[in-house]
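Today's session is about reading a structure prediction critically. Students often jump straight to the picture, but the first step is always the sequence itself: look for stretches that repeat, for charged clusters, for runs of hydrophobic residues. Only then move on to the predicted structure, which in these notes is written as discrete structure tokens rather than atom positions. Here is the chain we will use throughout the hour.
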Amino acid sequence: MARLTAPVAHPEPGWEPVVPFPSPEGTFLHEGNPPSRDALRQTSRVRIAYFRTPNDPQLYAKAWFGTKTMGPPGHVHGGAMAAALDEAMGAVCWMHHHRVVAATITVKFISMLKVESETIIEAAIERVDGRKITIRSTLTDLSGRAVAEGQGLFIILKDEALRTLDNR
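Below is the predicted structure for this chain, in token form.
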């Protein structure tokens, strides 16, 4: 039976909430800060909240995968996990004021994840080379077992491209 509400994403000890993207309304996966009641009731999809620790360049997220993320019976679709890793990798860049888009992402699936699971995502910048940023990420279940790993190459947008985005 599906849950009536998604669990609230509480920070781990030492974590503080962070809004990595410029829009407080949220993103494809992130419901904004603070999430609306409707967002918390929406358990059928993904719920994600971002955190950081002071003086740590790494980004942390808690991601909840609802019943509409199902791929194999009773388990989360790999595409939903890949989307969460992709967004977290972009978020760590934006958190550090690198306005980026993904060029490539690679996801390695390690084990299956049951739907209605809460997970922790860690994302960190490995290297900045001009406009290219290389990121790594890991999705773990709450027991600490790795479920998926991601690597990404993100490109810092030029000012002209940013202005075009702002003039939707």
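Discussion point for the tutorial: Helices lie at 37-41, 78-95, 159-166.
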